[in-house]
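Quick one: sequence plus LMY7XDAE SMILES, need structure tokens.
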Amino acid sequence: MTTIIDGKAIAADVRAKIAQAVTAMQSRHNVQPALAVVLVGDDPASHVYVRNKGIATEKAGMKSIEHRLPVDAAEEDVVSLVRDLNADDTVDGILVQLPLPGHISSSRVINEIDPDKDVDGLTEVNAGRLILGKEGLVPCTPQGSVIMAKTVRPNLSGLNAVVVGRSILVGKPLSMLLLAENCTVTMAHSRTADLPAVCREADILCAAVGIPRLVKGDWVKKGAIVIDVGINRIEEQGKTRLVGDVDFDAAKENASAITPVPGGVGPMTIACLLRNTVVAAARRRGLGAVDV
Ligand SMILES: Nc1nc2c(c(=O)[nH]1)N[C@@H](CN(C=O)c1ccc(C(=O)N[C@@H](CCC(=O)O)C(=O)O)cc1)CN2
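Reply:
Sure thing.
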């Protein structure tokens, strides 16, 4: 029997724990963590994600702050806003929704964020901390992917993990997290020779390339855990639908466990953002470790 890893249910558990930690922080320290989200432009999907982040933040008992800038905002305006948020001691977490409009350098804007408020874990400082195994803030989607894998196999040590995709948002940090779990990690990508054969070696196969249903059923080793990070909107039979980077129906025939799209990694991304916000608040304010 293949386990369908229920991202919505796991995210709900994580969010419930976060809400408890927030309540404890308020009653013990009179602190309400605050998350500021910066959205530039009109991308409809980004608007939905930012709205959902705001709702989730408030549901967890935290303060949600939204800054919306027009699509033609200058890079300097976005940088200046980030600097203001860095300087605002009531703000614990800062997130700049991606993608930014083409005339703005994402790298420049992201790296303006105070690393200790960088709840997306995307600054160079946090990337360096992750590689070095130091305490930092870890990118949300990779964090959620590992949590989901561990629900079906709590000890990943010694497993062969193949990560298809080498983005800064997912592929690279996910590879580092799996390495920290003592997996033997292969980072595969569009130029990997014989990608199907590489994937067939995986005990944990993670697909994060943004190509709908790239990973076929016969690329999946019998008994593998499949984590599908792709969220692709496609037209099929006259309808728009969301599909992952894995051919779910075929892959589930071989996998021992697999994440669906929707309802897999997506909900975990937001849950881990809330988690990072509570962690950032506790660390910045010297409140000790939080159990989330
Ligand atoms: N600054 C960031 N920008 C972006 C990130 C990110 O982590 N940080 N990730 C994505 C978008 N994203 C969050 O921002 C995100 C995408 C999808 C979901 C989600 O829950 N998806 C649902 C389906 C929703 C739908 O029907 O459209 C699911 O998979 O079940 C959450 C967050 C890019 N930008």
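The pocket of LMY7XDAE is lined by residues 49, 95-98, 120, 140-141, 231, 242, 261-263, 266-267, 269-270 (CB under 6 Å). The first strand starts at residue 3 and ends at 4.
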